[in-house]
Design goal:
Length: 454
């Protein structure tokens, strides 16, 4: 039985069904939320959040920001997109069941069924342009790509998932990403999901992972940054944000992403038809995967991975070993941008640096200590990217290539080497030396497909 903690400070925003009220309370957000750039502090007092509780430990499972209609307009654009997304699903479901459609909605989906469909046929390509795909799907790249992959792997039929619930879950997931974030938004989640698909196709994983592993890998990729606020954990800690207090300053964002995902799984009852123990186990494993993306624990996971490879004792027939490899695959997918072709990698680099600098501007505005890499006056995009590639990306992908020595692994290392050279060439004082030969912008056509060391 779930325990309800009804917070007495504020009423809920709207009438809710009893089964929802039984697990939700209302909270308000303090004026410190203005640190995130709210245009009018008076609006903060009108904002509310919904919170869910786990009956076992009463910790927060899901917190989502809500706004009154008058704050965002009578019909917000995101609600219109959600409506069309759901209508698109209903049409698709009717066609799959052989039921004739009753409205000309298919005309609205002409682009989706055309160019976007052609792109999905090549979703396993490392050169997949997620930015183009997002435009073709009218900003619904995460929904479209994840639904396609779940169908591609036969997971909907295998796990007897309700298509309406699947669609509703994916719509809620996409909507709970903050698309005003330059980097941590639904397009990033779609990109990570596409990369995860590429790794799941690698021979070692394809022949060893179970269907449950694949399902968890795709869901973890799609939800790994759910409800990301666009600032990092140190920022949340030093501003005494409620999430930092809730998770005791430990993997704050990752815990929130996981709990938010679990909240949506329960809200949509996606796994309600499974035995309780099975669904709870899937929630726990989903959490283990998402928590592995905590960049502060990078060395811990990398050291363990390196030790396994040195001792050659990874056995993918072992459940725990398979799960660990899935964690490493998700970690690679999460930070694979420097390993993409230059045209894609450069866009991601600009977006993540823009988000860093935005946080730095907020910290300066409120006279807080500026976080590393977040000061636009002392850092450049090239500085940030070269350091990230050298100390975080290269060590991880070098070990991944040891584990899975395939054409894809060598292609990623090749892109990484060329992209790093390009950023080095953009630094005025470092255009000479070891990187002098790499002054020309790399392209996917120039990428060597064989072994290449940086």
């Amino acid at each position: 039985m779930e325990v309800c903690y009804q917070l007495p400070v504020l009423p809920l925003d709207r009438p809710v069904p009893k089964h929802v009220l039984s697990r939700r309370g209302a909270i308000s957000f303090s004026s410190s939320s203005s640190l995130f750039g709210a245009p009018d502090p008076r609006q903060l007092s009108q904002r509310r959040g919904a919170i869910s509780y786990d009956s076992s430990d009463q910790t927060a499972l899901y917190i989502r920001m809500l706004a009154h209609a008058e704050l965002v307009g009578s019909i917000p654009a995101r609600r219109i997109r959600r409506l069309f997304s759901f209508q698109r699903h209903l049409l698709t479901s009717r066609l799959l069941r052989g039921t004739p459609h009753l409205s000309p909605l298919h005309f609205l989906d002409e682009d989706y069924c055309g160019q976007a469909k052609c792109m999905l046929e090549k979703v396993g390509s490392w050169n997949f342009d997620i930015f183009l795909f997002d435009r073709l799907t009218n900003g619904n790249s995460l929904i479209s790509l994840t639904l396609y992959l779940l169908t591609h792997y036969g997971l909907i039929e295998l796990f007897q998932l309700d298509m309406v619930k699947v669609r509703r879950f994916l719509v809620l997931v996409q909507e709970d990403y903050h698309n005003h974030n330059p980097y941590h938004n639904s397009v990033h989640a779609a990109d990570v999901t596409q990369a995860m698909h590429c790794y799941l196709k690698e021979p070692k994983l394809a022949k060893s992972l179970t269907s449950c592993d694949v399902l968890l890998g795709l869901l973890a990729a799609a939800t790994h940054d759910l409800d990301h606020p666009g600032v990092n954990q140190p920022f949340l800690v030093k501003t005494n944000h409620y999430l930092a207090a809730l998770y005791r300053n430990t993997s704050v964002l990752e815990n929130h992403h996981w709990r938010s995902a679990v909240g949506l799984l329960r809200e949509t009852e996606l796994f309600s038809h499974l035995p309780t123990e099975d669904s709870l186990n899937m929630e726990r494993q989903l959490g283990s995967l998402i928590l592995a993306t905590d960049i502060s624990r990078q060395n811990e996971y990398l050291s363990k991975f390196r030790t396994h490879l040195d001792q050659e004792d990874l056995c993918l027939g072992n459940t725990s070993h398979r799960h660990f490899v899935l964690q490493m695959a998700l970690k690679c997918a999460d930070i694979c941008n420097p390993c993409r072709p230059w045209e894609l990698s450069k866009q991601w680099s600009e977006k993540v640096t823009e988000e860093f600098f935005h946080q730095g501007d907020i910290e300066k505005k409120h006279k807080l200590e500026v976080s590393p890499l977040c000061d636009s006056e002392t850092n450049s995009i090239a500085d940030v990217q070269i350091g990230f590639m050298t100390y975080v990306v290269e060590p991880l992908f070098a070990e991944w290539a040891r584990f899975s020595d395939t054409r894809l692994s060598q292609t990623m290392l090749g892109h990484l080497c060329l992209n790093k050279a390009s950023w080095n060439a953009m630094q005025p004082e470092e255009a000479e030396g070891e990187q002098a030969a790499a002054t020309e912008e790399p392209s996917s056509r120039a990428l060597p497909q064989g072994s290449q060391e940086c």
